Task: inverse folding
């Protein structure tokens, strides 16, 4: 049982009360992945699981931030609180996109029931999972009903996000043949809801038909995904999207759902990989040096060395 330092104890109290500065401080701890944060997160974790984590992903410029802005308004009208984390897996915190996101959601700045933060995950060992997961937990602990994770759909990151989120929304735009093609590569598999945003542009209906056709090709027994059209700039379709998102949440059961169990397994595996990697890279690990030396001399294959390193771990 960890004993929290008095400073951490008071941070925890402030967090529970939803204090915004405390939330900011805790997120910074999660971002820097500091070892001191470990005991804090162990305290937070059992008290999470009450928030609905929604992943929103899609190609650059497909309208994710604009749509989220509309979602925030719709959820606030229902008196729900909303936190948004714009996850940027590639670039360090800088002006550009992050500033754009802030401006796009600026109308909610003065609202106590809304919290928006960008998270740079570049340089994190083992992908995004450890920090994003901790940040989502912090926001749940601070009492937010919905935690929206925005991430650009460029590869692995959105698939990782889908393991954290209970509901995953994938955006694309009409007529963007390349976007729809790109969806094939795994992203379609993670979608609970597919949104054709920018429905005001030509070809939205064809894109919807195309996506529905692609969905029928998913593996049998695969979860059903809904397809809808939205126009984020005018707000058309957003109420329907909120209905689909909340409905999806109520239909999944956290403990028994097969899909959730798969997610938990992947989450666990990713976290384990990150922790193991950290240990392996620890310079004081002399036993590992022996294994490395055998590899360098060509006495063992890489796979054999990995197995030996894993054995070290279980001792
Ligand atoms: N015509 C039209 N334009 C839209 C719609 N939704 C968003 N846009 C515009 O598309 C552009 C990109 O929107 P963003 O919300 O920044 O897109 P994003 O997916 O968050 O972009 P990144 O975070 O950079 O990947 C902006 O100029 C929006 O005004 C829509 O429904 N119709
Ligand atoms: Mg954006």
Result:
């Amino acid at each position: 049982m960890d004993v929290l330092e008095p400073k951490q104890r008071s941070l925890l109290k402030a967090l529970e009360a939803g204090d915004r500065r405390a939330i900011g401080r805790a997120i910074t701890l999660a971002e820097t992945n500091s070892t001191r944060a470990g005991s804090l997160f162990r305290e937070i974790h059992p008290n999470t699981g009450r928030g609905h984590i929604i992943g929103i992903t899609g190609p650059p410029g497909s309208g994710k931030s604009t749509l989220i802005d509309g979602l925030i308004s719709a959820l606030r009208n229902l008196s729900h609180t909303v936190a948004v984390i714009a996850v940027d897996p590639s670039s360090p915190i800088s002006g550009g996109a992050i500033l754009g996101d802030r401006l796009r959601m600026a109308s909610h700045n003065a609202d106590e029931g809304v919290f928006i933060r960008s998270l740079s995950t570049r340089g994190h060992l083992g992908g995004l999972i450890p920090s994003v997961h901790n940040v989502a937990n912090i926001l749940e602990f601070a009492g937010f009903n919905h935690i929206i994770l925005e991430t650009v759909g460029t590869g692995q990151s959105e698939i990782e996000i889908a393991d954290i989120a209970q509901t995953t929304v994938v955006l694309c735009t009409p007529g963007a043949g390349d976007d729809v093609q790109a969806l094939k590569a795994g992203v379609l598999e993670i979608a609970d809801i597919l949104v054709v945003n920018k429905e005001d542009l030509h070809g939205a209906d064809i894109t919807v038909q195309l996506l529905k056709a692609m969905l029928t090709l998913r593996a049998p027994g695969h979860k059903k995904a809904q397809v809808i059209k939205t126009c984020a700039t005018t707000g058309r379709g957003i109420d329907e999207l909120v209905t689909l998102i909340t409905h999806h949440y109520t239909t999944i059961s956290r403990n028994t759902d097969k899909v959730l169990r798969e997610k938990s397994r992947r989450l666990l595996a990713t976290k384990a990989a990150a922790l193991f990697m950290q240990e392996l890279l620890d310079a004081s690990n002399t036993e590992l040096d022996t294994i490395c030396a055998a590899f360098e001399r060509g006495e063992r294959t890489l796979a054999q060395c990995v197995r030996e390193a894993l054995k070290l771990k279980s001792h």
Residues 169 and 278 are 32 Å apart (CA to CA). Residues 49-253 form a domain with the Rossmann fold fold (CATH 3.40.50.300). Residues 258-281 form the longest helix (24 residues). The pocket of guanosine-5'-triphosphate (ligand 1) is lined by residues 58, 60-66, 97, 100, 104, 152, 197-198, 200-201, 231-233 (CB under 6 Å).
